Amino acid sequence: MAVVEEGLAPRLSSIIREIARGVNRVGAKADGSGTKGLLKVERLEGVKRVFQAYWTPFQISIAGEVVSLRLDIPKPHLHWCEAYLTPDQRNWILYFHEREDGQSELVYYRDYATPEEAVEAFFGFAEWYALTATDTTWDEISYTVAADFDWTEGRETLIPTSLAPGVQEALKKSTILWLRWLDNGTERQMPVWYVYDQKVGKIYVISGERQQLIPGAERLRSADVIFRQKGKNVRLAEIPATVRVLPKDDEWDERAEKLAEKRLNIPGLPEETARRWRDECEILELTLRN
Question: What CATH number was assigned to the domain covering residues 165-288?
Answer without folding.
Answer: 2.30.110.10
